[in-house]
Every structure is written in C-alpha cells, then in structure tokens.
Amino acid sequence: MPRVILHVDMDAFYASAETRRNPGLAGLPVIVGADPKGGKGRGVVAGCSYEARKFGVHSAQPISRAYRLCPQAIYLRPDFTLYEEVSARIMEILRSFSDKVEVMGLDEAFLDASDNVTDFEQAAQLARKIKNEIKAREGLTCSIGVAPNKAIAKIASDYQKPDGITVVTPGEASLFLKPLPVSRISGVGKKTAEILGRVGVKTIGDLASLPAGRVVDLFGKWGIRLWEIANGVDETPVVTSYEIKSISNETTFDEDVGDRAVVVETLDKLAKDVHARAVQEGFMWKTTGIKLRFEDFSTFTRAKSRNDYTNSLEIMRDSVRSLFSEFENDPRKIRLVGVRVSNLRRSDSSQETLLSWSRDG
Questions:
Q1: What's the pTM value of the predicted model, to 2 decimals?
Q2: Which of 108, 170, 238, 319 could form a disulfide with 288 if both were Cys (CB 3.0 to 4.6 A apart)?
Q3: Structure confidence at residue 52 (pLDDT)
Q4: Rounded CA gap, 112 and 17, in Å?
Q5: What is the pLDDT confidence band of residue 361, given thresholds at 50, 70 and 90?
Q6: DSSP-derived secondary structure for 38-52
Q7: CA distance 138 to 82
Q8: Beta bridge partners of 170
Q9: 289 contacts 339 by C-beta, under 8 angstroms
C-alpha cells in the first residue's frame, strides 16, 4: 500500500473568515490586505474572495494593482487574531482524523492517512468527512487533494477549488500531472514559467520529459526538486509537531517586486503566519531567519539568534526587518521571500532542536 497523503486547503480563508463574521459580505468582492489609499497604497493583498479573483486579484499582489483591477471591492485590514483562533480550531479538527498532521500555515495542512485507510476510495470518504466536519463546526469550506505524496496532493487540492475533492491514485499520477501548466507546481511563478517556456516547456508533462540535467542547468539545486515533482516523485514525509526542527513559510510573487515596501509588508505577513503556527504548536525559539530569491534566481538566507527563548511576534518581526535591511539597497527585484524560526523548544520543555532549513534552503 503506497502512502496516502491529504492536503487540506481552506477556501479564501481570510475573506471567508471575515464573511462568516459579517454575513453581509457574502457574494461581494472582498480584499484583505493593506490600505489601497485610492490606488496609491503600498503593501500587498493578504487574501481575497473568489468574487475578487474574477477580476484578477490574488494574494501577494501589490494592493495598488488590486485596486486598479477591482476598485469596487470591500477592502479590509487583516485581523490575525480572528484568523489564528479559527485556524487553531480547524487544525484540532484535522488532528481528530489523524495523528500525523503537518500545519503549513493558518489555512493549510498535510495529513498522512496511510494508517487510517486501506485504499484511495476510503481516503476519499475520509476527505468528505473532514470537509463536512469543518463545514458543520466552522461554517467554512475547504478543498482537499488526496494523492500518494505531498507534492501531488498539494496540486490536487487546487484542481477543483473551491469546495472540491480531487483524488489521484499512484496509477493516475502521470496522466493527472501531464497536461497541467507548470505554474501548478508550488514555487513556479511567472518568471520560472517564462524561463521554462523558452526551452519549450509549458506543461508538467513537458518538464517531466526534459532531461534532469537540463533543468538543473536552468535552476541549480532547485531544478532537481522541480524535475522530481514533474515526474511524480516526492518522498518528503509529513512532519508532525514533535519532529519539527524549524517552522517556516514562504511566498513567490506573481511578478518580481522592486518596491521594498511591498517586500517588507509581505515579510510581516509571513512572520505573523509563522508566529501563529509556532504558538499553536506550543513552541518558543531562539533563531529567526529570512530567505530571499532575486530575479536572477540567486538565493540568500540570513539568521540571527538570541541568548534566550521567546514567543514574541514583535521580536520576530523586528529581527526579520533587521535581517532584510542588508538587502534594501540591492537594485535587483525580488521573486521569493520566506521567514523561519528555529532552535525550537516547547514552552513546557527544556529540550531544544537543531537549526535546519527545510527543502531548498
């Protein structure tokens, strides 16, 4: 029996949480993020409703562009206290279905259901139970991908959004991935797609057929990961809170960003997401780090450590901004940013873990 992995992704989480609190927002374009200031605002979109997405608005987009696309939207500043509370309850629901849950942020998580089901038909039934439970208790919808590994499950959860379930068995993986655009792979933004397009790669199937060495020539170490995902290979385990060495979150901009205020706003949002997850899991930390990938794909990581443990959002945010100050005057545009905390300790334990970057750090 292969692994059975579920990726649970809440639908338009921030906007949906706001709409649940204020039902009058239902059916309206809702944009959560920075103040647009009549199209002159600086900062980014943290999240938006599907009604807003019809106008081309999406998360991590400059708020000024969102305003140009949809000036009639309802603009709200993020209420992370609300989102954290709702997220914590949702994650507890997920843990009632599996003891192997990896929280990826406020609105998504992986579940390893390999020990809970005997086949993918049962896994689909499990996904429906999860959806029904979240809907009944929180009044929110989610989309779930069911697959033999994390990479395919994440792609599958986005396949029938919103409120969908997509099941991909091991035998169906190649056929499922082959026709999809390469942009469906997490971390492949506009710039990466353009580079791949220049060598004739438009779909995941095209990428799978490209020699692995050619992909590495284009993207370095990250190319190995890209090529493996295109070929349906991902041995990454679902990491539970007891195995975590670091907690991180990152985002790839749809277009490379030169405005440093937009980058700082995005780093602040990522810091809030990482902080919320750390607090949910009961962690304190000594080390805060950032990750930057520029338009030329050069990638840098920086970190700073304290002498004592903390769980302060203000301290984390100040550290992130201090680390980023080294790059503020770099003329290159930025395509990806990430925030990480490590050197963790549970708030009720003196045990520490080792500093470790995940994935392609």
A1: 0.74
A2: 319
A3: 97
A4: 26
A5: very low
A6: GGT--SBEEEE-HHH
A7: 12
A8: none
A9: yes
